[in-house]
Amino acid sequence: MMIEAIDSSVLKVTFTKVNGEERIMTCTTNLQLIPESARPKTEGDIFDKESPVQRAFDLNKNEWRSFRKENVKSVEIICPWDLWTNGES
């Protein structure tokens, strides 16, 4: 799965929430795309590739969210981070 691209791109991730609902999230873990006030104090589990849970910054809600990797249905790269930051998304 392309979830590994989350630290260098903006992704559209479709997953099943724990309550069974489907959710689509536009997200990243690229710190250059996250407002400074929302950046984590430490990198900790955000970048833990072994964790079954992926933390990501939801660019539409401007909040950190998480999802279980095993519940991901699809991942689409919306654009590389450099295009997103130049307003070409």
Shape, principal axes of CA atoms = globular
CATH class: Mainly Beta
Q: Catalogue the unreliable spans.
A: none
* Amount of beta strand: 35-45%
Largest sheet: 5 strands, antiparallel
Number of domains: 1
Strand order of the largest sheet: 4-3-2-1-5
Helix and strand run: EEEEEH
Could you estimate the helical fraction of the residues in percent? under 10%
Q: Between the first and last Cα atoms, what is the distance in angstroms?
A: 22 Å
Mean pLDDT across residues = 85
What CATH architecture do you see?
Roll
Q: The CATH topology, please? A: SH3 type barrels
- Structural class category: mainly beta
Tally of helical segments: 1
Say how many strands there are. 5
Radius of gyration: 12 Å
